[in-house]
Amino acid sequence: MLNPYATKNFAITSIRRETKDCKLFRLEPGLSFSPGQFVLASVPGFGEAPFVPCSQPDDNKSFKLLIRKVGRLTSKLHTLKKGDSLGLRGPYGHGWLTDESPITNNKSRNLLLIAGGLGLVPLRSLILQQVQHKILDAKYKIQVLYGAKSPDEFIFKKDYAGWKKQFDFHITIDKPVPSWKGCTGLITSLLDKVALLKNPLCLLAGPPIMYKFVLKKLTEHKIPAKDIFLSLERRMHCGLGVCQHCALGDKFVCKHGPVFCWQEIKDIYEFM
Fold it and tell me: Which end of the chain is more exposed for a tag (fewer CB within 10 A), N or C?
């Protein structure tokens, strides 16, 4: 009988610092996953936690995890070096692209991606996939709005120049700082300043408090709940629906999500 908690070891082949407390780990061999799915990473004696792969999903040679140093396990992960191994299980859950998702079934729909802080992590693999497979489709466009507290907290900065050439990409910081010449204001301010794509499917990823205000703003823009999707990946614990830590009404985020249609959960989801 297979042990659902058994991990597989992956070798760390490179580590890149993204911010003062975030590192990007490249792992081998590759991992088959759908954008938005999550894995459980662990170190014996330090526990385990969920992370979302943030690289090209169809790369069979390697994949990447962005890990922020916030606690005992992640502090330990930040001590690992190139050549060390990391235990993982998964991937789990349903991501942005599923057989039932209108994102899959409506090939000509525009995509509006809205990310706050580390919310760009669960969206990056989707961006890479969409750019690779769909950017030549003139009928369909991608627009990304991304906000962070300060310029130092932006992640994946090396992607920005290329993204700006490939699709409509806008960034903002919460409050002005002397060195910043770009847009200033919360992520919701971009929804007023930027000409939004027409008839988009909206994908949201970020802190729950961000959802509250972005959803209100999207409603003002007459975007229906059935066309809004959000990731609740921050709520997971065991990944198997056993501990019930991620219960959301009669659903489990790890099994029925982490990506949900807003229309499906708006009456049971509570902002934290």
Answer: N
10-residue mean pLDDT series, the chain (272 residues): 83 97 97 94 92 92 96 96 95 79 60 96 94 67 95 97 94 93 94 93 94 95 94 79 83 89 90 65
Distances (CA, A) of 64 to 15, 32, 121, 218, 232: 9, 12, 10, 31, 20
Specify the CATH number for 8-92; select among 2.40.30.10, 2.30.30.240, 3.30.450.40, 3.40.190.10. 2.40.30.10
Q: What CA–CA distance (Å, rounded) separates 217 from 221?
A: 6
Burial of 92 (0-12, 13-18, 19+ CB in 10 A): buried
Map out the domains of the chain as residue ranges: 8-92, 102-265
Q: Which residues of 179-216 are buried (b: 16+ CB within 10 A; e: fewer)?
A: eeeeeeebbbbbbeeeebbeebbbbbbbeeebbeebbe
102-265 is classed in which CATH architecture?
A: 3-Layer(aba) Sandwich (3.40)
Q: Which of 173, 170, 120, 117 is nearest to 144 (CA)?
A: 170
Task: Report the distance separating Cα 249 and Cα 246, nearest Å.
Answer: 10
> To which residue do tokens 């890479």 refer?
128
DSSP-derived 3-state class of residue 171: strand
- pTM for this structure? 0.93
Q: Which parts of the chain are beta strand (E)?
A: 8-19, 22-28, 38-43, 47-51, 63-68, 85-92, 110-116, 142-148, 168-173, 183-184, 200-205, 228-231, 247-248, 251-252, 259-261
Other beta carbons within 10 Å of 238: 18
